């Protein structure tokens, strides 16, 4: 049994501003305001965005600007598939749970 019950994975760490700053520092990533980089950390806003999308279980969702994957995780829980894209030099949070940067 995991923390969430039988057969359920433990949720990833909450992506607070402090948490993201620490991870960004570990890989030498800095936010580029000129590119309009913003990272969603408000759980309420993430949930509102997913509800507003009215995703059906057989939908395929395209997410542009994946960032740290906070929204991606919620989209993946609702949709059949999520296809994501990120610009060069932005952080990537792969399924392995470790940070990499695009090259």
Q: Descriptors for this entry?
A:
two-stranded antiparallel sheet, single chain, two-stranded parallel ribbon, 14% strand, 3 helices, disordered N terminus, 103 residues, disordered C terminus, alpha+beta
Verbal overview:
There is one protein chain. The protein is an alpha+beta fold and 103 residues long. The protein has one domain (17-101). Helix content is 30%, strand content 14%. The chain contains three helices and four strands. The protein has helices at 17-27, 43-53, 70-78; strands spanning 60-64, 81-85, 91-92, 100-101. The protein has a two-stranded parallel ribbon. A two-stranded antiparallel sheet has the order 3-4. A hairpin with a 7-residue loop joins strand 3 (91-92) and strand 4. Helix 2 (43-53) packs parallel to helix 3. The relative contact order is 0.17.
Radius of gyration: 14 Å
- The H/E string reads HHEHEEE
- Measured by DSSP, the beta-strand proportion falls in 5-15%
Give the CA-CA distance, first to last residue: 39 Å
Number of helices: 3
């Amino acid at each position: 049994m995991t923390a969430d019950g039988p057969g359920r994975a433990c949720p990833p760490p909450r992506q607070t501003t402090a948490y993201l700053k620490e991870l960004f520092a570990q890989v030498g990533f800095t936010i580029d305001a000129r590119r309009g980089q913003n990272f969603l950390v408000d759980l309420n806003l993430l949930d509102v965005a997913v509800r507003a999308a009215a995703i059906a279980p057989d939908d395929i969702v395209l997410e542009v600007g994946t960032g740290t994957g906070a929204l991606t995780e919620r989209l993946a829980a609702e949709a059949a598939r999520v296809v994501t894209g990120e610009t060069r030099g932005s952080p990537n949070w792969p399924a392995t749970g470790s940070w990499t940067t695009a090259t």
